[in-house]
Design brief:
alpha/beta, Rossmann fold, 4-stranded antiparallel sheet, 26% strand, globular, nucleotide-binding, transport, ATP-binding, ABC_transporter-like_CS
Length: 251
Amino acid sequence: MGSAVRVQSVSKWFPQRDGESLHVLQSVDLEVEERSVVAIVGASGCGKSTLLNIIAGLVPPDRGEVFLNGTPSKAFRDWRTLTYMFQDDRLLPWRTAAQNVAFGLEAAGAPAAERKTRVAETLALVGLSDFADAYPHELSGGMRSRVALARSLVTRPSILLMDEPFSKLDPSIRSQMHDEVLRVAGLMGMTIVFVTHDVEEAVVLADKVVTLRPRPGRVRETQVIELPHPRDPLSLEIAERSRLLRRSLQS
C-alpha cells in the first residue's frame, strides 16, 4: 500500500502586526497510507488546522514539502480527488440539500445530467434520499452534517480532510457520524486525515494518531491504534487508550 499523503519537514510562520513572525509549525513529518484514517491531536494553538490547510493546498509551507499520491503538491493537478470538510457545515441556506451537494460539481462544470445522477447516488449513500428537496433550516444537526459529508463525497475523492466536523453534535449523533464516515470510507476506498480536540474521537476513528507539541507545532508522538472496527466509545479498551493518549498530551 502506497502513501496518500506525505508531509516532509514542513515549517510555517505567520507575520504579525508588530512586524514579528509567529512560528506555528516546525519540521513536521507525517505519513498517511492509502485507505487509512489518521487523526491529528494537540492543544489549542499547536498548528493542527494550519497543518491540515497546508495539506489541502490552502496555505503554502514556508519550508518543506507535501506530497499527494506521490506527487509534490505544487505540481498536483487533480484537486478534485481531495476534499475538505470544515468545522461548520457551511450549507447555503437558499439551496436545498441536493443543490448544496451539487455545488462542487457545478463549479467543476459537470453536465446537468451527470450532476443529477451523482447527487442522487451520494445522498442515497448517506441515507438522505428522502430529504433531497429539504432546505438546511428544515434539517436536524445530524442531517446537516450528512449533507456536508455528501457534498464532500460527490466528487468521488480519494483523500478526505476533516477539521473537527462533528464537534458541535451531541454525543449520540457524533457516534452515528463516526460510523457513517468509516462505512463510506470503506466503500469508496478513501484516505482520511482529520483534526480533533476529542481524544476519544481520535481513538474511535483512527488507525494512527499523531500528537503535536505546543507552538511551534511539531510531532510529539505517533500511536498506532490496533483495534478492530467498529469501536465502542464506551468500551474499556477505548477508555484505556484514551487515557494513555491524554497522558501523552499532558507530558
